[in-house]
Amino acid sequence: xxxxxxxxxxxxxxxxxxxxxxxxxxxxxxxxxxxxxxxxxxxxxxxxxxxxxxxxxxxxxxxxxxxxxxxxxxxxxxxxxxxxxxxxxxxxxxxxxxxxxxxxxxxxxxxxxxxxxxxxxxxxxxxxxxxxxxxxxxxxxxxxxxxxxxxxxxxxxxxxxxxxxxxxxxxxxxxxxxxxxxxxxxxxxxxxxxxxxxxxxxxxxxxxxxxxxxxxxxxxxxxxxxxxxxxxxxxxxxxxxxxxxxxxxxxxxxxxxxxxxxxxxxxxxxxxxxxxxxxxxxxxxxxxxxxxxxxxxxxxxxxxxxxxxxxxxxxxxxxxxxxxxxxxxxxxxxxxxxxxxxxxxxxxxxxxxxxxxxxxxxxxxxxxxxxxxxxxxxxxxxxxxxxxxxxxxxxxxxxxxxxxxxxxxxxxxxxxxxxxxxxxxxxxxxxxxxxxxxxxxxxxxxxxxxxxxxxxxxxxxxxxxxxxxxxxxxxxxxxxxxxxxxxxxxxxxxxxxxxxxxxxxxxxxxxxxxxxxxxxxxxxxxxxxxxxxxxxxxxxxxxxxxxxxxxxxxxxxxxxxxxxxxxxxxxxxxxxxxxxxxxxxxxxxxxxxxxxxxxxx
Length: 601
Hints:
The protein is of the alpha+beta class. It folds into 3 domains: 39-369, Alkaline Phosphatase, subunit A, CATH 3.40.720.10; 384-435, no CATH class; 446-600, Galactose-binding domain-like (Jelly Rolls, Sandwich). It has helices spanning 2-38, 67-74, 88-97, 123-129, 187-201, 224-230, 247-273, 308-311, 338-345, 362-365, 418-435, and strands at residues 42-49, 77-83, 133-139, 157-161, 173-176, 179-182, 207-216, 280-286, 312-318, 327-329, 333-334, 377-381, 384-388, 392-394, 400-402, 446-448, 455-459, 464-465, 470-471, 481-482, 490-497, 501-510, 519-524, 527-532, 560-569, 572-582, 590-600. Strands 1, 2, 3, 4, 5, 6, 7, 8, 9, 10 and 11 form an 11-stranded mixed sheet that branches. Strands 16, 18, 21, 23, 24 and 26 form a 6-stranded mixed sheet that branches. α5 (187-201) runs parallel beside α7 (247-273) and α6 packs across α7. The chain is globular, with a radius of gyration of 27 Å.
């Protein structure tokens, strides 16, 4: 009897233990549900630069491994046909606004054409108004001077660069909320760490974290540990025009993608450690097709093209408590859908100031059905317009392709489907008339002296040079001016001073010993400042020491700030002129950037 009694007692105790454990777990889940029903979801948006649809192992590329990015699809949802723009700044503009980029005034990737109109409402502003802490870390590429700067577009925190590309990825000059700083290590690692710090700081309140990476955009730079894995590797998959593929460029891009994957992984791990994963939406997508001929599932087109391969992007979204793992969405969607989708999923009630082109994908993400009517998504760049519906793509020349049967766009089926051809042709004509009617109309001045921001940056990228002054590279982004050999030559910026004031002028420059004592003048609408360069600073050109493939972009220098003095600028428009008045040596110092720092009103 004693043995039976002991066994019975043990059974009772075991049942009590599991009952208490079940009650504790239930209470925890109830408390968690209550807490998270009261607290909106956090949002993290990761956007890579020049990484094509095919640059993920998720999509069948056996040349590389991206398990952490792939896990977002396994643990959440994947859109099978998601479309962005052919190049960088337009995609960013469409994500930020939910509207096609020409509506927002974006017509170029540099020299002012990348700026998103100041009267557009951004996703940062929508979430900030809803009480979110907002931060952006990486490549902005939609304007530098306020009100175009990210800090003026709804983002409390910004760390990175505003240009279209950067000349060096290892501890380069960057900015933090408008102030010049030095980066810490490889930029993608650095941006990720700053994003993690932002999340840690704001873990007790809803946050919106935008992480726009700048790789695998060239120059092709990546830490040794990633490059060493690929430099001698035999690739299994190649571009359909294999003889035209630059294998070293492909290997560098793949190495950069694996570095991104590692960084996505440590971001996800930190969410787990902070117990934030369950109530955080994580999105991953790319800004255009691949920046080179490499495997992309034999789709036609790459970066710059409005064909399928130039605009198809992965779209992965994870929200563990809401989105069913392994969800695959066959309906088409695009970057224009992300703002309305995220606002809808976060429960933000807002009325857009301007009509949106995008629509909320929330019903599809939660397993529902599409609206029913067949959708059309338009792709545009440099006057070329392509349109995609669920089955067909009409290219910019009016050829029609059945994308379910012909992903390579080899067979024009416009004669076989005359009604569809007519319908899509009319749609393109109507869209072009409506959306492109004011495209590139008028030149907006560069803004100076915004009343809410102390610092205005005017880089070489945005200047116009006269005479023999040379830009360091034909691509304006991250370039500088050199060979300034005449007092007849000058740099000019078409500017609008938004509020009068007195400004400190700081020139980021390089001055060779033989060019010492050059006398420079800054002038705007009759107000002048003159100063001589009195210190030598002549650093070597750099950046190439980290390149894995010969670059197209400008090399860079470690330019040094020179305090030129103070100037009073009256409110209004005009030409800001930077001139050489006296050149005792061979030429004027090289110019990279001007900072105008408000001292008084």
